[in-house]
Amino acid sequence: MAYFFRTGTTTFRATAHVGGAWRTDEQHVAPALGLLAHVVETDRAARGRDGLAVSRLSYDVWGVFPIGEVETQVRVLRPGRGVELVEATLWCAGRCAVSLRAWLARVGDTADLAGGAPGPVPGPDRTPPWDPANVWPGGFIDSIEVRRSAVEPGRATVWVRSDVPLVADEEVGPLARTAGLLDAANGMAVRADPREVAFPNVDLTAHLFRAPLGGWVGLDTTVVFGASGTGVTHATLHDEDGPFGTLAQSLVVRSLVPRDGAAPTDA
User: Fold this and answer.
1) How far apart, in whole angstroms, are the C-alpha atoms of residue 182 and residue 204?
2) DSSP per position, 130-177
3) Does some domain include residue 46?
């Protein structure tokens, strides 16, 4: 079974595989991020241009949303021959749940100029298996395979993949399959027990200097909590050919249990 089944030209039905980690009756945002990347790449009626590759995916998460039918919309905000800015939105139960602004650039040969990428990390075959269900519940967590090398709380190198199709009976490209796994970064290198501290991300931005392969996605991840209720998850993105980009997520950090006699804050 897939994460989504198409029910119309712009509508999709989510399955139990998208079940969330903070609450299992809500959607984990990760598959939705992949779905929006997929419609940006494939909605020819809205875009109508080929020969452009995604260089940035910038998502905003507007709130939690239930497991059910979703609708997507795509429009070009800034057309052009060399670069194009595309907006995609995902609606659920009559309101916007996730939005994406993607920059695309014309494909060209710059192999003789390539350089400056960070070094590789040990691949999935050299990273021990790890069961994320020991930390998180939910259908999405159950659907992924994870390998992890943890350095300390909030610092780990993680490899993640899924054999669950993003959309049933549709060809989905490597970029969208990769995008559907990126939100795992924040949950695979936790600084604190999520039963005691909530740290959901309200956004996710990935900058890409080459197209990912699909398959295993490597996340060389650092999580930072600040002193005033916010945090940042940062990761260098890898596939089995090496690094291909970076990722950042803005976190809202809230204690779920009393500390030093204080009441827990509202997450």
Assistant:
1) 8
2) --GGGT--SHHHHHEEEEEEEEETTEEEEEEEE-S-SBTTS---HHHH
3) yes
Question: For residue 43, what pLDDT is reported?
Answer: 86
Counted domains in the chain? 1
Residue 173 lies in a domain: yes
Q: Which residues pair with 15 in a beta bridge?
A: none
Is there a contact between 179 and 245 (Cβ–Cβ < 8 Å)?
no
Give CB contacts under 8 A, 24+ apart, made by 130-137: 130/158, 130/188, 132/184, 132/187, 132/188, 135/187, 135/190, 135/193, 135/194, 136/21, 136/187, 136/194, 137/19, 137/21, 137/24
Q: What is the pLDDT of residue 90?
A: 98
pLDDT of residue 133: 96
- pLDDT digit string (tens) for 152-175? 999 999 999 999 999 999 999 999
Phi, psi of 170 (to 5 degrees): -135, 145
Q: Strand pairing partners for 218?
A: 159, 238
Query: Would you state the pLDDT for residue 81?
Result: 87
Give pLDDT < 70 ranges for the chain: 259-267
